[in-house]
Design a protein that fits this description.
Blueprint lengths: L5 H7 L6 H20 L14 E2 L2 H12 L7 E8 L4 H14 L5 E3 L4 E4 L7 E5 L6 H13 L11 E9 L2 E8 L8 H13 L11 H13 L2 H12 L19 E9 H9 L7 H17 L3 E9 L14 E9 L6 H17 L4 H7 L14 E5 L13 E4 L11 E8 L2 E9 L5 H17 L2
Parallel strand pairs: 5-6, 9-11, 11-13
Antiparallel strand pairs: 1-4, 2-7, 2-12, 3-4, 6-7, 8-14, 9-10, 13-14
Helix pairs in contact: 1-2, 4-6, 9-10, 10-11
């Protein structure tokens, strides 16, 4: 097991200290070690008596958002293309076993909110034959997109559905849609692996913990951190600017969105990284470029955007399906005349500070003095998400599998940029809400952004 010697290192450098100062540092070290010893060491199961269990802060954030707007929590989706003779009965059995394996797929939510784990829930699977349509692959994509926006009843369940599209002889496309309160994007890799293994007849080891165990543990952990971290957010967000975008530019109301994407070479992102002083990650480079774009679009020089912090940091959570994503505000000033290299340093430092002081977003909103505006997402209305390079589709016995790409136009914020490395390229996808932008404006954004990336020096 890797040991943590940070406290010892903290104590090791006593040069130039007086004896009283060394004694003070020794006492601080002892307190730090005692606090670390008293802290919970891992996620352990909580008793199941059939009654409600606490929601995690991540679930609570999503639940609260949906109370004001059913579309405020976009679904997550998984697409797999399968070539070969698909056994539908076998797939249905694997899907049922998947729901039996992961409690979060057998969970509904009360108005507290709390979560209730059920012994069983249906495994909704639908089969649609698009093979006789003029363009079966595109027809399947269009139908999948329509299904991605369908809503789930949190109090009833189940909160996922699987659709199988036949697009030709020996060609099928699987499309899984799941409510965000039950799973996040990072969990979809676990779902894909488990579904493939179950279809292939492989034995999966029992899960020692489930998401409800993480929820109880994470709530206890957050309670020990919130009070000491709230002052950081009160200072950071004090006097924060109002919404970036207002009005109704598009013809559709509500939360309907449009997505447009473009690919740029990794060498473009690497060139931006090299402009910075010190270590600069692709996240920092692309986030700084995105903030530059927002500044040019709005004329604002005081910007707040949202970034993602994933809480799946413990080994025992690697095989657990659930929602582990917390949103963290990033506030930066972009003064006139500031060069891009200086902005890279600011973004790196701001992100480090925000993540070091992370607290649940719902707590930040309720206790950090954040002003609320009806119909407007609190704190920030834009976000930047940097995802990992998607891994290949898992092995399905007797079938050739690959990732089935699809666009999901579900917009929880006014504008979102998602950056995904794909081989030698980066896919940059903009999703804009159609009561803030027109579909044409969203379509133009990736091209404008690509030109900006080439311009920045």
């Amino acid at each position: 097991m890797k040991q943590d010697f940070s406290a010892i290192k903290d104590f090791g450098d006593n040069r130039g200290m007086t004896v009283p100062e060394q004694a003070d540092k020794r006492r601080a070290l002892v307190a730090k070690l005692l606090a670390r010893k008293a802290a919970p060491q891992g996620v352990t199961p909580v008793p199941r008596d059939g009654g409600p269990l606490p929601c995690s802060h991540e679930q609570r954030r999503i639940w609260l958002a949906q109370q004001s707007d059913p579309a405020a929590a976009p679904n997550v989706t998984l697409g797999v293309a399968l070539s070969g003779e698909l056994d539908l009965a076998r797939l249905a059995g694997a899907f049922t076993a998947l729901i039996r394996r992961h409690e979060v797929f057998r969970t509904t939510y009360t108005e507290a909110p709390e979560q209730v784990v059920h012994g069983a829930l249906p495994a909704p699977l639908e089969y649609l034959d698009a093979g006789d349509l003029p363009h079966p692959e595109q027809a399947a994509l269009d139908l999948a997109l329509a299904r991605s926006g369908e809503r789930f009843a949190l109090g009833q369940g189940p909160l996922l559905r699987l659709t199988v599209f036949r697009v030709g002889p020996g060609e099928h496309r699987l499309f899984l849609v799941c409510h965000h309160i039950a799973a996040d994007g990072g969990s979809l890799g676990v779902v894909a692996d488990d579904l493939a293994a179950l279809y292939s007849g492989l034995a999966l080891p029992d899960l020692p913990i489930q998401y409800a165990d993480y929820a109880a543990w994470s709530v206890r952990r957050a309670e020990t951190r919130i009070e000491e971290r709230l002052p950081y957010w009160r200072d950071l967000l004090g006097g924060a600017p109002g919404p970036l975008f207002t009005g109704t530019a598009g013809s559709q109301g509500g939360r309907a969105g449009a997505t447009a994407a473009i690919r740029v070479g990794r060498e473009t992102v690497d060139r931006l990284r090299r402009l910075g002083e010190g270590p600069t990650t692709p996240f920092v480079a692309l986030c700084a470029a995105y903030l530059t774009l927002l500044q040019r679009m709005t004329g604002r020089r005081d910007l707040v955007t949202g970034i993602v912090s994933a809480s799946r940091t413990r080994r025992e959570l690697e095989s657990v399906v659930g929602t582990f994503v917390n949103m963290v505000p990033l506030r930066l000033a972009l003064p006139a005349g500031q060069g891009f290299p200086a902005l890279l340093t600011k973004v790196r430092e701001a992100a480090a500070g925000a993540l070091a002081n992370e607290i649940p977003f719902d707590t930040l909103v309720s206790r950090a003095g954040v002003a609320r505006i009806p119909g407007v997402h609190p704190v920030f209305q834009t976000s930047f998400i940097h995802r990992d390079d998607p891994k290949p589709a898992p092995v399905w016995q007797g079938l050739e599998a690959r990732v089935w790409d699809h666009e999901v136009d579900d917009a929880a914020l006014d504008l979102m940029l998602t950056a995904t490395p794909r081989g030698d390229d980066y896919e940059l996808a903009f999703t804009g809400k159609l009561d803030r932008f027109s579909a044409g404006q969203v379509k133009e954004l990736p091209v404008v952004f690509r030109d900006l990336l080439e311009e920045l020096r």
